[in-house]
């Protein structure tokens, strides 16, 4: 533990303290302004173009998918991660399955892979990883990590 602490101390950039003394910022901040938005009618009118722009961004490797999956299914009366909850009516259909299938549809449409990351909590990492392994979803190159970054499964 002591070695770890000493290594962290050695890695500190002490020059940042000089910035505090002069009250200057290292990097000037930009301006904040509301994002522009499109009306649904505008999206519908430009759907083909917008879809092609998105697919091209995927093909160029400018897109990744991140699933924030740290929550438990407590409010659903389920003591496991929400993604493991079966929402199927006539067959088993899990929330994770729906979300992964949505991304895989886009992968097929784009003809290019989308890096896929799933962030879990420390509490549900083991359950999530075991479930995805059992359902053979780890075969599609999912990267799973905890919000604290203490654990990582890289495809």
Explain briefly what this protein structure is:
The chain has 155 residues and is an alpha/beta fold. It contains six helices and four strands.
Describe the fold and architecture:
With 155 residues, this protein is of the alpha/beta class. Helix content is 39%, strand content 10%. Helix 4 crosses helix 5 (95-110). It is extended. The relative contact order is 0.11.
What does the secondary structure layout of this molecule look like, with pairings?
Blueprint: H1 2-10, H2 16-22, H3 40-45, H4 47-59, E1 65-68, H5 95-110, E2 116-120, H6 125-134, E3 142-146, E4 152-153
Parallel strand pairs: 1-2, 2-3
Antiparallel strand pairs: 3-4
**Radius of gyration, in angstroms, nearest whole number:** 22 Å
What overall geometry do the principal axes of the alpha carbons give?
A: extended
Which regions have little confidence, pLDDT < 50, spanning 5+ residues?
Answer: none
| Strand order, sheet with most strands | 1-2-3-4
Distance between the termini: 30 Å
Q: Structural class, judged by helices and strands?
A: alpha/beta
- Biggest beta sheet attributes: 4 strands, mixed
Give the amount of beta strand, in percent. 5-15%
Fraction in helix: 25-40%
- Per DSSP E runs of 2 or more residues, the count of β-strands stands at 4
Which whole number gives the mean pLDDT? 86
